[in-house]
Amino acid sequence: MSSIAHNPTGLVDLPLEMLVEVMKQLEWDDFLRMRQTCRHMCKVSNARPIWLYFFEKYLRSTIPGPFHPDKPVQDYSSYELESLVLRRKGTEVAEGRFPRQRKLHLGKPSSDILSNMHLVHGGRWLLHAVANGSVEYVDLDTSEHIARPLTPPPYDESACVMASMVVDMDMATDDLPTDRSLVFNLGLLLWRMPRYDAEIIKPTSLPSMCIQVWRITFQNDCQGGSLLAQCLSAFPEEAIANPRAFSLFWGRIAYSLCFVGEHARRGRCVVVVNWQLANASEMGHQRRYRRLWGQNLASPIRQVACC
Asked: What domain of life does the native source organism fall in (predicted)?
């Protein structure tokens, strides 16, 4: 009895390496359909080279924005790459492995009052400013969402500070990590409100305003990673106006001021500062003003943007 050689008759009979290359050539929707055809295809679709290919294809693009990994790409597992790609594509697999909604219970921060917050691009790190002007962060990929300190309070712990916070993911600099891990600049506009004596109804401390720029980087550690902050610039601003909008891009900071009290006649203005040259404790840094004399004082500027 002669033996009959077995010849491949379909995709499932192809070698694993060839199936991986076939899946990499598919469009996204076709790939999702193919991985659901049978158990074998589903198992093959978990191969790391496939998700590394999709990671480079969909997360390195500039639309809707480049992804900044929080650790070297070679340290991501196949499952982590799959999760990142699915998050970017906004697509769920049939097993319901990645639900559309997730309710988070954050650990109690150092203050009951959160004055501002920002979800860093990528969805893992949540930054929030507390009442004393410091910034804390929460790692949303951990089971216990505990607030950890990132930047210190600019004044004493008992000060009541209004904080505006902006993040620049596209800063121009020559000292970015070679492994393309997470790094961004964090801008803080901090306004310390005056304190009043309840008996004499007079301020016991004057208001104060300062602006800070921090370089935030990812540090890989035994706990899965953390964020580190390095102060790049800190300088004061006139405390005779209420800060409104705030924006940061590359080496420039823009913010709007609404003058109050005896200085109200100065109206409102937008200020642009080169923060790289303004790192000082005095008011001697150069600023560019755009005064808005003809505007209605009852309608302050709510948003400005550096571009």
From this structure: Eukaryota
